[in-house]
Amino acid sequence: MRLLSHLRRLIWPSVLLLVAASLVIFDQDVERRIGMSLRLSGGVAGCLAAAWLGSRMFGLFADRRRRDKRPYPRLFRDLVAVLLFFAAIVASAALLLEQGLLGGGCCVNLRFPPALGSGLIANK
């Protein structure tokens, strides 16, 4: 019975994640029907839904994984949830600003030369 109540808590985050993924996957069809692209909003909703689902799944894991019938502290579960949502907000901002997580020009581009195949050459 307890497992059923936990699985019930996973329904809405899973539904939101599926809707967001379908907005990203079927972007061109949605754009043809309503006249505007929902790719970015689907990506942001997907990031937040993944954080929500991860938070709920960790809560399920923390409640099921008990030693000596002592649950994980509530503060630890809340800290994991905060870290997941912080990562989702940073990923959403990077998506909206069309940047990588490390920025646009600070990374070194690595490429494989066609003749050598196994060596790395760093380009700036």
From TrEMBL:
This protein's UniProt keywords: Membrane, Transmembrane, Transmembrane helix
Residue stretches spanning the membrane: 36-54, 75-97
Protein's name in the database: Small-conductance mechanosensitive channel
Annotated organism of origin: Sagittula marina
Lineage, broadest ranks: Bacteria, Pseudomonadati, Pseudomonadota, Alphaproteobacteria, Rhodobacterales
